[in-house]
Amino acid sequence: MNTSYDEWKQKLAHSLVIIQCDPDRDLYLQPLEQRAIQIGLSGIAVEKYITEWVIDITDITFKFKTIKQRIKTAWRR
Predict the structure, then answer these.
(1) Of all residues in the chain, what percent are helix, strand and coil, respectively (each to 5)?
(2) Which of 39, 59, 64, 74 has a CA-to-CA distance to 6 between 20 and 30 Å?
């Protein structure tokens, strides 16, 4: 991939999908050894994502509120 910074920025500006890797984190937000893939969508990719690609969404808010409470309780000890 022999592109200049300006060429890269131009391609980035017109990309429908952007993929990057970031450190994964534990429940205490500390970086883990493995990396997490983050996928950014724009343009028609967003439309397809919300109308065609997603087949189910499960609300897990309660589960994570429970985990948060347990972490807070553990920190108080």
Answers:
(1) 45, 25, 30
(2) 39
